[in-house]
Amino acid sequence: MRDETIFSLDKLNEECGIFAVYGHPNAAQLTYYGLHALQHRGQESAGIVTTDGRFFRVHRGEGLVNEVFQNKTIAKLTGDVAIGHVRYAAGGSGLANAQPLVFNYVDGELAIATNGNLVNGSKLRRELEKTGSILQTSTDTEVIAHFIARSQKETLVERVKEALHYVVGAYALLILTNDELIVALDPHSLRPLSMGMLGDAYIFSSETCAFDTVGAEFLRDIEPGEMLVLNREGLQTTSFAQPERRSICSFEYIYFARPDSDISGINVHAARKRMGRRLFAEAPVEADVVTGVPDSSISAAIGFAETAGIPYELGLIKNRYVGRTFIQPTQELREQGVKMKLSAVRKVVEGKRVVMVDDSIVRGTTSRRIVNLLREAGAVEVHVRISSPPVNNPCFYGIDTADRDQLVAANHTVEEIRKLINADSLAFLSIEGMLEAIGRPSTEHNRGHCLACFNGEYPTAIEQEKVVEGNK
């Protein structure tokens, strides 16, 4: 069972994070630390595959990185090349779906790890099964591996290029053999992926915060449609597809990425503070104290408070020691669960008009519970400010979004949502305000962002069955 605490039920959840090392004697140890830095992107499973040029060594498991790997485990993962993965299961869970996935094919062993989701994955899966393929997992990663194995091209690079011509969607991709490491990013750059260096070793990560953890120097972001091939001859850069309109997921800045990461050259913490400042400019309110819902909303709350001239206080405290699988067998205990995960600081909010800043509202149930927490702690008014636009549409690119009929903003006005969450006032940041606050160049369409969950403008074609699922 996935984490049934308040945040998993009413928050967007990232699909996963990937990390790779090429050319370092302690590749497994570096990958372990890199995955630790990316733990926020997935908590269901973790895995590392290494190679010394002759053999693969593999360890995968369910749970957090420090639960899956011990010192003795890392010591067995020898080799100077490694790829790693942390996963949040939007689809099937279980050890079989833990990545990297490892396959035997005509030229030997192949390991593959991805971050993202294919919008035509179900269609491709059916095509494979109709022609005799037996798939062992429910992941799109396995679908890509099957198309690589089926290719009749001579080299692995050519096979990967051919396979990626079949797929549509969001993916940051790592492919490892005993001879080479291949890194690729989808033509729209929907998922983040960066390259760094540690001495002579190349490092690849979903977020730049992992470079700081392992002591690597950031070099650059991987470009849309770009493929990098690393082998004993060095690093070669090529393209597997014509770059499309860049469409970085907006929620990397709003919620997913760590505040100390830079996404496309923009620091996440600074962007969130600017969103908070813009939020006050668009929806000012008279209040006594501002608080943010920990952890991803704190930066925006600070920006809101600084611009408003209202004190920022830790009015809400997160309990970091609640288990990931807290059992809630009854509705009464589910309601109590919010108090185990989050506490209101009575001495901060009692008798005060409180502004509660959060990054998003998905179903609205969590927002209502937190507002009620603040009221129970003595807040006389609770004004809710959301540092993103209303989420009106499901995501098909690797974010675990509710069906459209479960998205509160898709079915209610802002005033109706305000009543549902028991707030004195409610306001969302506008799309224009969000884009300006993040600060990417205005020369690109939508400033290079995917806005599909806000305005329904998907950067790729969406399989009809997926659209139907999202609107049922």
Could you explain how this protein is built, in words?
By secondary structure, the protein is an alpha+beta fold. It has two domains: 6-244, Aminohydrolase, N-terminal nucleophile (Ntn) domain (Glutamine Phosphoribosylpyrophosphate, subunit 1, domain 1, 4-Layer Sandwich), CATH 3.60.20.10; 251-471, Rossmann fold, CATH 3.40.50.2020. A hairpin with a 4-residue loop joins strand 7 and strand 8. 51% of the residues are buried. Residues 1-9, 324-329 and 464-472 have low confidence and may be disordered.
Number of domains: 2
Arrangement of strands in the largest sheet? 3-2-4-1-10-9-11
Helix/strand-derived category reads alpha+beta
Q: How many helices in DSSP terms?
A: 19
**Share of β-strand residues:** 25-35%
Flag low-confidence runs.
1-9, 324-329, 464-472
CATH superfamily of the largest domain: Aminohydrolase, N-terminal nucleophile (Ntn) domain
Radius of gyration from the CA trace?
22 Å
Span between N and C termini?
A: 24 Å
Summary, kept brief:
With 472 residues, the chain is α+β, with helices and mostly antiparallel strands. It has a 7-stranded antiparallel β-sheet.
What is the strand and helix layout of this fold?
Blueprint: H1 6-9, E1 16-22, H2 27-37, E2 45-51, E3 56-62, H3 65-68, H4 71-76, E4 81-87, E5 101-105, E6 108-118, H5 121-130, H6 140-150, H7 156-164, E7 169-176, E8 181-185, E9 194-198, E10 201-205, H8 209-214, E11 217-221, E12 226-231, E13 234-239, E14 248-249, H9 251-256, E15 262-263, E16 266-267, H10 268-282, E17 289-292, H11 298-308, E18 316-318, H12 331-341, E19 342-344, H13 346-349, E20 353-358, H14 365-376, E21 381-386, H15 408-411, H16 414-421, E22 425-428, H17 431-438, E23 449-450, H18 452-455, H19 464-471
Parallel strand pairs: 14-23, 17-20, 20-21, 21-22
Antiparallel strand pairs: 1-4, 1-10, 2-3, 2-4, 5-6, 6-7, 7-8, 8-12, 9-10, 9-11, 12-13, 15-16, 18-19
Helix pairs in contact: 5-6, 6-7, 10-11, 10-17
